[in-house]
Amino acid sequence: MNREELGNTMTVRAKPAGAAVLKNNGHRDDEGESKLEPHVGLEFDSAEDSQEFYNLYATQLGFRIRIGQLYRSRVDGAVISRRFVCSKEGFQTNSRTGCPAFIRVQRLDSGKWLLANIKKEHNHELELSGEIHPPQIQRKALPAPRSSVVVSSRKGIRSHEEKDGRPSPSGVIDVKRLKREEVEGELKVEFGSANEPCKGLEFGSANEAYKFYYAYATNAGFKIRIGQLFRSKNDGSITSRRFVCSKEGHQHPSRVGCGAFMRIQRRESGKWAVDRLQKEHNHDLGSPMDPDRNIAAFKGFKEEVISGLENVDLLETNDGLSLVKRGRESNIGSDWYHVLLEYFQSRLAEDTGFFYAVEVDGGKCMSVFWADGRSRFACSQFGDAIVFDTTYRSSTHLVPFASFIGVNHHRQPVLLGCALIGDESEESFTWVFQTWLRAMSGCCPVSIITDQDKVIQQSIAKVFPRTHLRFSAWQIKAKEQQNLGALLSMDTEFKYEYEACIYQSQTPSEFDSAWNVIVNKYDLKENAWLKEMYRTRKSWVPLYIRGTFFAGITMDGSMKSFFGTFLNAQTPLNEFVLRYEKALEQHREEERKEDFNSFNLQAVLHTKDPIEEQCRRLYTMTMFKVFQKELLECYSYVGMKINVEGAVSRYLVQKCGNGDERNTVAFNASNLNVSCSCKMFEFEGVLCRHALKVFQIMNIRELPSRYILHRWTKNAKYGILRDADSGGGSQDFKALMLWSLREEARNYIEAGAASLERYKLAFEIMQEGRRNLCWQN
């Protein structure tokens, strides 16, 4: 029997003469032809045997199979049950129909596997059996059996006798021996000659990389564990894996926070390469270990990789087997909780507005959230457009640190809260968003920018149902290169049409039309990534984004990182709080400098337009320069009235000498409302050159107060409220007034406590102020 024949052959132990013909091992004779027929109670030597049996049965019947869920014991984590399903199970791709056909096998105390559940009915048409071929399984050559007897005329199914010539009494499928010899042989070879790992080292598969690192660790004298895995946001496939020293982390007394690890990343070719490596340990290494004691390690990793349900266990109860959710595990080391809680307590003593919360699940600490009084106060003015920064997910950060970032009145990033994410589950992100909302007095943001992640999307939809979600541009660009990189670089015509569709479409119908042309012309109808991007187009296409306020955060997503180089992937625990405080202080010092400049310096006026003087008086220095640029540009535009409907006039505004740049502006003479098709005011909160041109045509000498957003003014930081024309009553501004007074009081106390003389003066002023307040109605 050669290797190819062996790869397509299933070995079956023969039953004693006189027994029902192969019925108990899954075969049934029909007029001389042996057919596979699964049934409850069928036994196998291993889960792999049951998979091969079901695969052959599927081939015979005319369908394909996939590996489904696995279930682990809550006692020792061992796999105790597996499901194998029809390839059309589920609805993740268009080719799947939600087919219910499956078998489930369960491990017995004897170590054998029993077919416990089965559903044979399919909800789709089956193919002809000859059109499907079972996958060839690579095996090592085995010594031929001493004698074999063919008991079936069906090609590819044979039986053999035991070495002593007697038939096997068990009648179960026996493929386990082949796989065991293959696995043991490969491991022993690699253990004997483990090389040093290095960056760039390539492997054919993640399994191969694991075996290599396992062999290296065995020779070096330490043990390893499977660490984090990272999945594609598009199809859920694993794109990166970490293998770590067994003493990594602090979740157990035996662990000492060892930093040694090897990370592999999947390349476009399908191979895996080492992209990050840390060889140094912070503990003594043992003597080289005997590899024979841990042959099962590779199989354990393989089971985890192919697992379709990693957070579910199958528990044995009085009523049989029950599917239950496994207890959540935190990605945050236990020592982090102690350090942070001490820090929070010290901050509470200094800052009465400091807020923190810890998520507890099943008696275990999970996610942590905190925000100081300054961040909570800033949110009352700058919490309308936020960025939920989860940069830690794209690299090997020691701690899953996330932050809420806003944009202040100087267009600087401002901190609105921080969190450590316990695990990347919907429960964790939902808790973090709900806690942030509670800390910020229930004020939901208008918009939020974050990762294109389904779990985060679901949490945002649950907590912020009316908030416009936008995906991070840098992440979209990265995925674009992964999925369309070759086409974009090699076909200039495709690149032009693709970018024109995204960035130049003015209406949904224009976008849909251009998109359909591209996917049909370049045969991209079945591109899964493009299908998902079209489904979520409202979260990344400029056409759908620019009508929502995003505080001017540009479409390319370029926004200065708040923590920059202060916090990176390898920031240790003992430096985290110090670096966090330094970053916070640096940003707040930069904000103080801009505040000083805005109140004490004046920008140069370039026109005699009263509107320019009005905006210089109100806007911060940074925002006035943004407005001034638009005002100066409007002088190079012309406007023509094209339509009148009652009090509303429509103008076509275009640049002189450039007929391609056109925008439509609607102006209401009764209330001075203006709206431009470019949507700059809606997106950024500053009037565009096109609207300003129409104001010039209509001889408007002062901007209505609603077009000068309070958040961009010099007084925004201090929460000084404008007159009633700004809209909203006192109840709407209650949170704003509370935080404004609290922030001012904090500054007042700091100034008054500088000396005894200042204290006396501050106290007298405060008493006088309180008396004046009491006289008010």
Automatic annotation (TrEMBL):
It comes from the Eukaryota. One of its GO terms (molecular function) is zinc ion binding. It is found in: Nucleus. It holds the Pfam family MULE. One of its GO terms (cellular component) is nucleus. InterPro entries: FAR1_DNA_bnd_dom, FHY3/FAR1, MULE_transposase_dom, Znf_PMZ, Znf_SWIM. GO terms for biological process: regulation of DNA-templated transcription. Residues 663-699 form the SWIM-type domain. Its main location: nucleus. Keywords: Metal-binding, Nucleus, Zinc, Zinc-finger. Belongs to the FHY3/FAR1 family. Putative transcription activator involved in regulating light control of development. This is Protein FAR1-RELATED SEQUENCE.
